[in-house]
# Entry
Amino acid sequence: MSPRKPARPAASRRATSPRKAEESAAPASRAWVCEAEVVEGLEDIARREIAIHLDNRVELKAGPQGKPLPGLVRFNYTGGLRALLRLRTVQAVYTVHRFAVPRPKALLGDQHFRRLLAEIDAIKAAHPAGSFQTLHIDAAGADSAVMLRLRQELAQRSGLKPDPEEGDLLLRLRRSPGGGESWDALLRISPRPLATRPWRVCNMEGALNATIAHAMILMTDPTPYDVFLNLGCGSGTLLIERLAYSAAKQAIGCDLNPEVLACARRNVEAAGAVDRCQLEPWDVRALPLPEGSVDALSADLPFGHLVGSHEENLALYPALLAEAGRVARRGALFVAITHEVRLMESLLAESAQWETLAAIRVAQGGLNPRIFVLRRR
# Structure
C-alpha cells in the first residue's frame, strides 16, 4: 500500500475542498444576505465548508452571544449564486431580503412588488430555463386573502404556477428578527433543497440524509490516497458522498443484502461513479481484506428501528467494531452514526482498538442519533 500523504494544514482539514466558482453573468454577481438551513448538530461543520468553499467572498455572521443558531448558518456573500449550489453540508440556502413594511400586505405596493419580482428573477437566472415551474409561499396565515393574492400576483408576473402545497420557487415570509416594523422575504435558491441529491434514484427506507453523510465524510479527513471502506453501505449514500468530495485510491461499499446492493448500484450509476468504486456482498463481521489495509471507514449502523433490532445489534456491534479494527491501519479514522448510543459507548469504553475522538448529537427524521468519530489505536 502506498505511503500516506503528509497531513494538510489545519485550515484545510475536514472541510470540502475549495473549488473556484464559475460565476454567472454579471447581474447575478453581487452582494447577498444568505441563510442556510443545516442539520442540528452540524452547524460548525457547515460554517467551515461555507468559509472554505466561498473563500474571501463570505462573511459568516454569529448568532446571539456569538453562538451558532440551532439549524442555521447566516452569512453575507458576494458573487454568483451558482457557487452556493455546490454546498454539500447544508440542507437549503435562502437569500434574505428585508422590507421596511408593517405587514405583508404592503408587499403588494408597486415599489416592493417590483423588488420582490427582481429577486425572484435573480434566482431563476442562476438555473437553466424551465427549472422553476411553480411558486409556493410559506408564511403564517398563508391561506389569508392577502397571502393568496400575493401568491397569485407573483406567480402571474413571474410566469410560474401557484402551488398551495409546495413549489419549485419557495418564498418564506417572516417578521424580521429583533422586532421593529419590517418583514423578511427568504427565497430558496434551488428548485429543491440541496439535500435532495439528483443521484438518489433509489431510496431505501431509513436512508441516511445526504448532508449528514457528507459531514461524516469530512470527519474521515479524506485524501486521494485513501482506501475507503463503507461498512453496510445500504443505498450507497456515504460511498457516493465520499466520491463527490474527491477521488480515492480505492472506494468500497459492502452489504450482505442483495436488494440493498442493487439499490446502491442504481444510485452509483446515477452519480456517474461506477468506475470509481466497487460494491461487494461482504459480511461486515468477516471481511476478505488484509489486516491494516484500510485508511478510512464509515458506517450508518442499523438503529434497530427500521433496520435490524436491538437484540441483533448486541451481537453485531462488537463483531463489526472488532473486524473494522482488524482491517484499519493504525491511526485510521472510522466515522459511524447510530441511535444505539448506550451500546456503542459501552463497547468503546472497553475497546483496545478504538479511541473516541468525538460523539456528535444530530437530528435525523425525528431521532437524535450520534456520530462517533473513532481513531484506530
